[in-house]
């Protein structure tokens, strides 16, 4: 089993190489952007999570131009921040959403996206406050419950987080993003068997996207089943990216095993002295 810090380290490296983790998925209300028009929603456009780096850059440029002309426009700000986040520009995404939260202080979509941007920047307590402000107890939103749970997971509050994930699943049964987030909760605890169970449910659920299936590949790889992990990853990534991810996992597992061996030897020497 990995220590929490080791699991987080591997998870972050895996994400940088090519796998986008699904933690807090579903917080922002806009999941697709038209590549033809900067300010309009196109139901048939490719989802942001499925865009290549070059596509994300083109869309970010167009949305940036639209945002500069009308920064107070809620829809443009939400889509622009979502694209920036996927493109790795978390600081810029946070700046966009911070201004939008000032412009729309009571808007649930804006507060939720602001919370997501704060969480991505590591500001978990403010993120939690923003997401809770966006929630309405009489009409709870499953997306916000899942987002709040993901933030609580990052704060180490596993029991509270999993309770919220299950409440979210009561409102939205078999929702892939929530099941995946629940699986990642167990990854953070080092319980990879439970994590895999939930990840497989998530990957089989209707609407499961690339991030969910990539998370399954990560969990399988963390258990040392490298060939299976690489096969799963190649369904979503290029062969080179999948191989790079698995090579890194092999290296990290080897380091973890070497560290455990050293600790065992130290303990044995102490007992003989």
UniProtKB/TrEMBL annotation:
One family name in Pfam for this protein: TPR_16
Range of residues in the leader sequence: 1-30
Keywords recorded for this protein, A-Z: Repeat, Signal, TPR repeat
TPR repeats: 142-175
Gene Ontology MF term list: mannosyltransferase activity
Stored SMART domains: TPR
GO biological process, one term: protein O-linked glycosylation via mannose
This protein's name: Tetratricopeptide repeat protein
């Amino acid at each position: 089993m990995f220590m929490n810090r080791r699991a987080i380290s591997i998870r972050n490296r895996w994400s940088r190489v090519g796998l986008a983790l699904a933690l807090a998925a579903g917080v922002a209300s806009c999941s697709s952007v038209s590549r033809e028009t900067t300010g309009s929603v196109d139901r048939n456009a490719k989802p942001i999570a499925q865009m290549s780096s070059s596509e994300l850059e083109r869309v970010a440029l167009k949305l940036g131009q639209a945002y500069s002309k009308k920064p107070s426009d809620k829809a443009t700000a939400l889509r622009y921040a979502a694209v920036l986040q996927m493109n790795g520009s978390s600081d810029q995404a946070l700046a966009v959403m911070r201004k939008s939260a000032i412009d729309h202080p009571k808007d649930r979509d804006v507060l939720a996206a602001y919370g997501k941007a704060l969480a991505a920047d590591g500001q978990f307590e403010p993120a939690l406050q923003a997401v809770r402000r966006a929630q309405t107890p009489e009409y709870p939103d499953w997306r916000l419950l899942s987002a709040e749970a993901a933030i609580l997971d990052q704060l180490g509050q596993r029991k509270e987080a999993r309770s919220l994930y299950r409440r979210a699943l009561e409102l939205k049964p078999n929702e892939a993003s929530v099941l995946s987030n629940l699986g990642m909760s167990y990854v953070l605890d080092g319980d990879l068997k439970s994590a895999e169970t939930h990840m497989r449910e998530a990957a089989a659920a209707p609407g499961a996207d690339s991030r969910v299936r990539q998370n399954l590949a990560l969990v399988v790889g963390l258990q040392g089943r490298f060939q299976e992990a690489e096969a799963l990853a190649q369904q979503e990534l290029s062969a080179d990216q999948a191989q790079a991810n698995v090579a890194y996992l092999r290296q990290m597992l080897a380091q973890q095993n070497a560290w455990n061996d050293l600790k065992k030897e130290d303990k044995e020497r102490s007992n003989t002295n």
